[in-house]
TrEMBL record:
InterPro entries: Glyco_trans_2-like (IPR001173), Glycosyltransferase_2 (IPR050256), Nucleotide-diphossugar_trans (IPR029044). Residues 5-176 form the Glycosyltransferase 2-like domain. This is Glycosyltransferase. Keywords: Cell membrane, Glycosyltransferase, Membrane, Transferase, Transmembrane, Transmembrane helix. It comes from the Bacteria. It comes from Fluviispira multicolorata. SUPFAM superfamilies: Nucleotide-diphospho-sugar transferases. It is found in: Cell membrane.
Length: 321
């Protein structure tokens, strides 16, 4: 009998997690009856500071002792807050299913699409990913910056990363086994999954507003995720240092010729400390930007060389069947 795994990262989700479990469990029960399958739900507690973990333990006990259920709930509790991408990777690492679905705990992505994902998986697709046609409850600024980011990312990389996709997707066991061999620490899973190739297919949906609670991706975290995506999949920022240097050198040569010709024609050198200071500050800014870009790449190399684990599991708080 085939098995479906659903991975749900959680960080301070006590306001929504019971509703999430209710909806996801109902969908999985119905789907598994249709396709004659079993399931597991893997909640990953990413170092929550509220009572999310206690609620998960309660939901697990209530669910797993019901013999009429077609699946079980497992809990992976991390030793601290490692971040959404690491928590999602932890859940994928422990998933045992033949098809593995990742979905956020905020109910913005509809669990009802799981049935369609499974149908497409049974038809032979290895990855079925959700693409948001609209995003309810999000500001114009966030929508604009997200769209610009995906457009920029597609221009800078050779990986075909779908615009307006997220972490709501199904992966086959084959796709997940390949994904789990990828070793990088600074993760951008939305780029890593398209990178592995295989047969990938989109499904389109309207994303709802968060059911309860507040977003766990404020602007600062979104900016870091954007940097991780660009630096992990593109060396264009490094190459841009060469182009900046070439442009500045060319402008300097042109300006030098201008000074010489002006001095010969007028008989005295060009006056103006303001223009000189602007040129110096411009060159200094280009150098600092270049050093900053190099620092980002070197810092990630440093993280990779240390080979620290991507996540650490708190065995006392975790409950795995």
């Amino acid at each position: 009998m085939s098995k479906i795994s659903v991975v749900i990262p959680c960080y301070n989700e006590y306001e929504v997690i019971q509703e999430t479990n209710k909806n996801v469990s109902k969908v999985l029960e119905d789907v598994c009856k249709i396709f004659q399958m079993e399931y597991e739900i893997i909640y990953v507690n990413d170092g929550s500071k509220d009572n999310t973990l206690q609620i998960l333990h309660f939901l697990q006990d209530k669910h797993n002792y019901n013999e009429q259920k077609l699946g079980k709930i497992n809990i992976v509790s991390l030793a601290k807050n490692f971040g959404h991408q690491a928590a999602l990777s932890a859940g994928l690492h422990y998933a045992k299913g033949d098809a593995i679905i990742s979905i956020d705990a905020d109910l913005q992505d509809p669990p009802e699409l799981i049935e369609l994902m499974i149908k497409k998986w049974l038809d032979g697709s290895d990855v079925i990913y959700g693409v948001r046609t609209s995003r309810e409850g999000e500001t114009f600024f966030k929508l604009l910056t997200a769209k610009l980011f995906y457009i920029l990312l597609r221009k800078l990389t050779h990986v075909d990363i779908p615009i307006d996709s997220g972490d709501f997707r199904l992966m086959s066991r084959n796709a997940l086994n390949i994904f789990n061999t990828l070793p990088e620490r600074n993760r951008f899973i939305r780029g890593m999954v398209p990178w592995i190739g295989l047969r990938q297919e989109p499904i389109y949906y309207e994303r709802s507003a968060r059911f309860a609670g507040e977003t766990k991706y404020p602007f600062r975290k979104m900016l870091k995720l954007a940097f991780d995506g660009i630096i992990s999949f593109s060396n264009v920022p490094l190459q841009s240092a060469y182009y900046f240097g070439f442009i500045v050198a060319l402008l300097s040569i042109i300006y030098g010729f201008y000074i010489v010709i002006y001095s010969l024609v007028k008989g005295y050198p060009v006056l103006g400390w303001s223009s000189l200071m602007v040129a110096i500050l411009f060159i200094g800014a280009v150098q600092l930007i270049t050093i900053g870009v190099l620092g980002e790449y070197i810092g990630r190399i440093y993280d990779e060389v240390k080979k620290r684990p991507l996540f650490i599991v708190n065995e006392k708080e975790s409950r795995l069947n």
